[in-house]
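Notes continue from the previous slide.

Worked example: a multi-chain complex. Inputs as given:
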Amino acid sequence: MTSFRAFTPADLNRFAKCNLDPLTETYDIGFYLQYYAKWPSLFQVAVDDRGNILGYIMGKTESSPDYFKGSEHYLPWHAHITALTVAPEARRLGIGRILTEKLEAGAEAADTWFIDLFVRKSNEKAIRFYENMGYSVYRVVKDYYGDNVNDPTAHGEDAYDMRKPTKRDKTLKHIRDDGRSHEVQPEDVF
Amino acid sequence: MAPPRIAPAPRSIQLKHTVDLQLDRAFHDEQWAIAANLARNRHNATKDEYYKAVEIAAKSRCDNAADRTLGGEVVQTMINDNTVIKDVDALDLYEFSIACRPMNYAKTIGVLRSRLVKALPKDQNAGVRCLEACMWYSDWENAQEDEVLLWLQIRQRFGSAQENLMLLSLPNWGPLLFLERGFTEAFFQSIQLLSFNEQWEEIIKVADTVFDKVISLGQEEPPASSLAINERYTKASREWLLWTSSVNAAKKLLNGQETLKTFHKKIKKVIRVLNAFDLMNPVFQKNYDMILLDIAFHRALMATTSPHNKFEHNIVPHLLRLAKKHADASSCFMTLKGFLELLDQTKIAEFVDDLGSEHTKDVEGVDTFDKLVLLALRLKVRLFQATSLTANERCSFCQSMISKGPDCKTCLKSITACALDGFRAGVQDTDVSEKAAHQSEDPLLNLAILGSICLIKLAGAGHKSWQHRKESPLYHVNIQLFLQAVIWLDFCFRRRPKNDSLDLLLVRLYLLMGCVTPALKIFGRSGIKATLLESLGMVCYDRLASISPGHFVQKMGQDRTLMDNFRRYFETAVEKRYPDCVKVSLENSIYAGVPRLVELAHMQSHNCALVLTVVEIHRGLRMKTGRNEATMDEEPLIAHLPPDYELRDRTDYDSLPQWTGPQSMPIQELTAYGPLPTNRRCHLCILTERFFDLVCYAQPKDFKPSKATQLLQVDWQAAASTCKFLHTSLDALLFGDSDDIQKDVTGPEAWHFRIVSQLAKLVSQVLETVLLPPPAAAASTKAAREDVVHTIHRTLKLMEYQSQDFLALPRGIHARMHTLHGVAATHAMGMLRDSALAARHAVQFLGAALDRIKTTDKPRGTAEAAWLTPETRKLVAAAAAADAGMKERVKVLTDGLNMSGWVDCLLGWVFGDDDDDDDDIAGQDGFGGIVAKKMDLFIPADVREEWAADVTDSWRDVVKGWRDVSDDNDDDDEKPS
């Protein structure tokens, strides 16, 4: 069975099923605890009956610093998906979708304008997943990733900055249809 | 806790500092009419709504009745108009304006506070002020989500069941209100609180309301209600926590069977609605299958009247349906396992029979991959059944009589053979490998793990009594079967180097046979770092320093030794991360998060890994250099742990394959190099390290105190008292508990701790009864001397026993097999080395003390040295003998490993058939030969040779590390004491 709930710090001792996956980065404990301490409603987990974490999503709410306000790259109050991972054994069950929905509910409650995330341009599976959930490419961040998983000789890899508007954005002013043709540099991204 | 009955006093108020002096003075001097007029004027002039609030607040205290009720009217209008006041100071004034009359805070100002917080989520100051105001008036309804969670935590900790039920059943409070308000987490936590308080009827009531609501939404004319609320109900109705809480509650009720039946019907209707709304993701569908099975199981259990028959209704078809539906999910077996534990042997055998064939060619029209998936599942169930038997029970699968539970060896052999056949069929089918690469579940890896577990069990691994194992941990293990398990897993690792269960299992087996380098390599490639180290580090690192001190030596160009990052992880987490995060939590008003952070910090600081990491590092460096490189006092996390500080092993063993029966030895114990980490072992280690700290301490040469003699007396008194404490504490841990020590430590460890305890006693005796008595006593008494000598002799005896056990390599066996057991027994060498070091340092410490007394009282010093030194020299001699034994062992191992032909020899052990004359090599009843023939069909010659060469090289690495230790020891011996 799988149940869903908010993350608690003790879960860090049981997340091996997710984090032993080579595509999931494991950070210092402080990284996870900071998210828990600041944005607990945006840190959700899927758990099996033995207490193993089968998936988790971490997010935060933020806006660009005030000195960015004049910039075209200024980001208003929004939620950001920092990590979403599902253990290999629990994939294709829709866990990622449910976790994302839970984070979106938290983002709505925090009255944000949109939810955004970064994804490798080559990660077509993830891009499809997010598109199915209503996200669209807002802009392309050139060489955002230092490495290129498909071409080790390349300098880096582009990222798609994907967004989904929340209910607050009634006029959909924070998304665009032609996001793939809007290129920005990593330094433009907050 | 009863709800407050006395209305709270109105809160005091301050005007904003931007308000001019005249108005501020009038307001605070309670010149209400003047203040109201001034505020009206300011409002007219500035159009600032704040002044309007000041005016209303001032009027509320005037004598005019209309003015006094104005505040209430304005607030009510704002509530009705959905007005949001975003100025928290203005809101305080509106609160002030109605606070002098009876009011329902939650329906008036509380509503406006809630709106403000939602409108200004980034304004922490406003949020905290609103929270404080709500708390003042006990308005939990409008307190933020987070505070509801904190409230629930407090209730769980401190509230009685009846109080909690009463509070959660209040008309405007409780789980359903939380749900409707969007506090989903609070909804589920309140259900958990009710479960914690065993309020089963209330849980059923809440679940019924949720289900009824959702069922009504599926009707043609659903009741009119907010879309958002409907959505919250529908989403809650599919959550496992609600289902399982309801089913568990139903089981506890007197009319449980009837309630379960009703619940069953209701949940079916709910699922129909959820499906119609397209809200049933596969994960919920899977949960649904499980809850139906759970209900079926428990209804069958409740309906059974016979005490001899668990199930009168046949439950197996239900289980079979679930198994076949989810066979391709790797979690399938673990799901089944919970139900299998409820079945008796006959039912399990019936289930296995119906689960499919074990012959991969039997089923037409199904591809090999799918057949193997089902085969792996069937064999997992068989393994569970074959390891769940009791003594003198007949195995219901193969009908063998089991003389000693819990394993049926006939079945284990049969499972191994089937797994090998299936594995070979899969390996030779390219479609299987291709398909496996795109699936989360690889049946080939499952078959390899299954077969290997059976082989390890058949080989006889897993000691229940580590103390009585003098020789290599593999001596009583059938080497052929053991190595066959290893090479099979290694073959898989080389083909597809990423399967967590397989990798960690292989790490354990390699450590058990002394192959440290490949174990560390596989562990390193598993991606276990940072936060994962805490839960998985001990899978690899436990006892590593005693097995292979060479791996703890800092290499050229490296700024850290092995396990340094593990230690730093704990230091950073406990010393910095938790305080930081608690601070951040408080700053962000996430109060409910604080107890959980504290709880994790508590768990982490009581983790055995925290202690053993430090101990391994200290021991590893000491093995190499022969002296303490750092003291326990320099380890802030464990420097002051008292012996009653409770430590627990928090390793996440679920990452290893947990497929055997509940009575069977868990895989982490079966593959361990000794007992798993325990509180007792940790404290024995800490106390031992403290002894090393004391006897290794050397006073700086430039330390010249003014009252040297007095200071020396104080030093010795402290040392004597410390040693007495260490001896008492060590003995209490070794002998004081009713539980046998063998559950906690290996035989070599037990000898070592006992020797250190005796050495601590010796030091305290010598200091107290020989060196510390006042000068008038002239010399130590005969009794005191006899006690000291007795302790020395006892220590010598223990050292002799430990050396004998260490040297107790099996006799009369093949020279190369002798080498294998020698390499596998290096842990015993490590513990002996540490005992020898402890003895040397203790003698050096006492020698230095005698030298000191000679400088102040030469006759007495000489007299005491005359009888004591010859005795302590015996300890040095025993240590030297132990070192010589170790050196000899290392030489034998080096020579043995330098012989040519190791690859052929190892492959001969693995692939030799049962015609081999050597009893040590042949598997039991020729089974090793059968396995060898089957493996011969799929492990290519070059892979075998590569594996054998790697194993030999890794043994050479370990022995080379020991040779360096041994060489350094020669240097130590040359130094004057």
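Summary box: Residues 26 and 35 of chain B are 5 Å apart (CA to CA). Chain B touches chain A through 66 residues (CB under 8 Å).
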